[in-house]
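Appendix C. Worked example: Glycosyltransferase
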Amino acid sequence: MKISIIMPTYQDAESIGQSIESVMSQTYDDWEMIIVNDGSTDETPEVVAAYLGRPGGEKIHYYEQENADQLNAIKNGLRYATGDYIYILHSDDLFAEKETLSRFVAYEREHPGYDAYMGNQILIDGEGKEIRLDRVMPYRNSKSRAALLYLWLGRNLYIDFAFFRRKAYYGSIKRSYLDSNMPYWLDLTQKSKCLNVKSMDFPMFRYRVFEGNYINNEIGKLNVINGELRTLTNLMKYFSIPFYRFQYVAFRAANKLGLASCFTPIYQNREEKHKEKVVRFAIEKRFQKTYHENLFLSQLISFYHLYESNQDWETVEIPPALPIYLGSDMRAFHKALLSGNLDPFYMLFLEKMGKGIHLFYCKNKDVKKLEMICEFFCIRPFITIQGMPS
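Step 2, the predicted output written as structure tokens:
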């Protein structure tokens, strides 16, 4: 059984060597490592090159791309993966021990047939010193877990790291996680279907925690909340949670006490009525009142505030060369927005979105593009699109 390890990297010349060594030292040897340099300007190429000539270096494949963010780097690496299983190892993290791959292979043989296998993580500091073992909440394949994800503001209940079966990864996981930046274990194309995931009670990897982590900067927070809001608004179509804020506080307390796995929210299988309150709550938890400074976030709240009262419709003309953003492209979108280089189409669309308009007409050939645009802006479940002859 071959395992493809995809390693996206950006400006990690100081740590990538340790990450590579944690792979090359594995006792299980049927693996390949695909490193995708996401536009680093440090000494990453030189560090990687030093390993290519070592024994086992022939199993390392190195590629470079212009800076496009980590999800796009993973998608790029996925094109070259030939393994039966896919594992994503970031260039500042390490496998937990030399036997990690061997332990997974043995476990998979005893428990075959799952879409993914998820273990625990060991938290380490910037120097690699162990902080503690972090046990991931045991996975449960049930509708109540999707409802709990909705209660948790679309924030992933688990971790993004697992050994993924190739067929599942190239299917729903690629769509949910890599394209849309949502939790891999939920397939929202199948009405909030949970994937078949197996929890393994041993540590898979060492996760480095430091101030430079993705979530600890403004751009990183915007990228993360874009995925969380996309998850949240998709789930609003299927779930309604009474006393939302009260139940949120209750789950947060249970989570801090290590009782998260015992918590089941009270929910109803119907569309959420209080959409704006839920979306605003989620955004304010990340950005407090500063969300007004961000055009996307402020217009999203405005959309859900005016959504039910606005019965207007708009005809949309999509320029042929318009760049279509996916959830994995949030950094590029935000960079264009801040620099004043965002295509005028998007500025106009955000204006219409802020008015609560939810019925759009466009040419038949542009329907798919408009669906993707609405998905990116976290309004797709509540938008009606009518195609017209060209």
